[in-house]
Specification:
The structure is a single chain. The chain is mostly helical and 98 residues long. 82% of the residues lie in helices and 0% in strands. Helix 2 runs antiparallel to helix 3. It is flat and about 55 Å long.
């Protein structure tokens, strides 16, 4: 079994397990789960920066790394904005006026 087959197998298993996990989460736990996925995306940003800035990176690696940095950063920022909005929904209305 080649490394590409193993990587494809791991990706398919992770996608299936991730889908099942998110589908079965109660609505009260969506905000903590979103915060966790933001942290994972932040790790992807750091990894993409390391790969893109490597000395012996090819042009394709640099382009794909830059794309990964941009898309992961957008994902992290929008995820935190959505999480903040969801948390504001749980605050009492009297606390906003003070």
């Amino acid at each position: 079994m080649s490394s590409y087959e193993v990587a494809l197998w791991v990706f398919m298993l992770a996608a299936f397990l991730g889908f099942e996990l998110i589908r079965r989460v109660s609505p009260l736990l969506h905000t903590p789960l979103m915060s966790l996925t933001n942290a994972i995306s932040a790790i992807a940003v750091v990894g993409a920066i390391l790969i893109t800035g490597s000395k012996d990176a090819s042009m394709l690696t640099r382009v794909l790394g830059f794309t990964a940095v941009v898309l992961s950063t957008i994902n992290v920022v929008s995820g935190y904005l959505i999480t903040d909005r969801m948390l504001k929904m749980f605050k009492k209305r009297g606390a906003e006026k003070k």
